[in-house]
Amino acid sequence: MIDPWGSANLEYMDLIEKFGVRPFSEVLDDVPEPSWLMRRGIVFGHRDYDRILEAIRSGSDFAVVTGMMPSGRMHIGHKMIVDQLRWYDKLGAEIFIPIADMEAYSARGIDFETSRRIAIEEYIAGYIALGLDLTKDNIHVYLQSENLMVEDLAYVLAGKVNFNELRAIYGFTGSTSMAHMYAPIIQVADILHPQLEELGGPRPTVVPVGPDQDPHIRLTRDIAGRFREKYGFILPSSTYHRFMGGLTGGKMSSSRPKSAIFLSDTPEEAEEKIRNAKTGGRETLKEQRELGGVPEDCIIYETLLYHMSGSDPELEEIYESCRNGTLMCGECKNNTAEFIRKFFEELSRKRKKALSTAGRVLEG
Ligand code: SF4
């Protein structure tokens, strides 16, 4: 019964069973010094991760690609991507971070100038504040609309993709715009272009994504296979992470401000949001003592699971004390609110500093 990491994964098992994604637990023991996101089951699935492990073990070259969609405010749920990138950066991976301004235009109607501003002020500043040095030589951040290598590759790849295929994957209809239809091919090119000769040639590549992005991964792998002879592509690997829930139940989303803590929130706002968050506690203290709480259904616990990076035993203790009714929600919330306030005090300082340099990242 006691499984501090695994219980919330059940809803994702479908993806594993239906589409051939493998459980990450199968390879976890082979990962040298796995990240806490891996250890805690937040990264729950993979395709062909063995290739990446082989590259890590042998110290050979591999790439990581993960995009950012500049369409709203960056929230604490997005931090998980940065945490994964920091882990790969330490291993010496070459990291590509496309800013999906073409997709933001085709799917959300956001013009390129606005995308650029949002990318700089929200995401690039946020990534830097969270500890990823975007000025390093092994890290490449670019706007899709300004990367000619990606655009040229997308056009070539599109030569072997037809409407029926995209309709089957994405549900496109006769009234879908051409721009919208083309956006997935740009993403495929984002993922495959690190393997072009100009950038060093074929190499293992991993794409950390949420489960909703798996259709893009399947399409990319299919297309990579069609162009294997021309470019020698190695099918990209992927990992799948679960999403942090919203503070008020449901999903955490930039479009529902009360559901999320934004990186631009003040420490006081962040603390207040935690104090108002939904818990998995019982109606009364008496019931909580008798029955214990339900950490699997508690955003406070989830906040610690995703963001208390250091100590697994400390987190396990919180889980067990909650389950056995010795920890009450008031105390638990207080501690978590304090933890988040301190985290945001530091983050706000770093973010302010990062805002003054973030624009330069796109000039390099
Ligand atoms: Fe959540 Fe903590 Fe209450 Fe348990 S004790 S339900 S982990 S707030």
From TrEMBL:
GO cellular component: cytoplasm
GO molecular function, one term: tryptophan-tRNA ligase activity
Keyword Aminoacyl-tRNA synthetase: yes
Cytoplasm is among the record's keywords: yes
Cleaved signal peptide residues: none
Species of the source: Methanothermobacter marburgensis (strain ATCC BAA-927 / DSM 2133 / JCM 14651 / NBRC 100331 / OCM 82 / Marburg)
Domain of life: Archaea
Protein name, entry field: Tryptophan--tRNA ligase
Chief location: cytoplasm
Enzyme Commission number(s) of this protein: 6.1.1.2
One Pfam family per UniProt: tRNA-synt_1b
Motif ('KMSKS' region): 251-255
UniProt record, GO biological process: tryptophanyl-tRNA aminoacylation
Root EC class: ligase
Family as reported in the entry's similarity comment: Belongs to the class-I aminoacyl-tRNA synthetase family.
Compartments (UniProt record): Cytoplasm
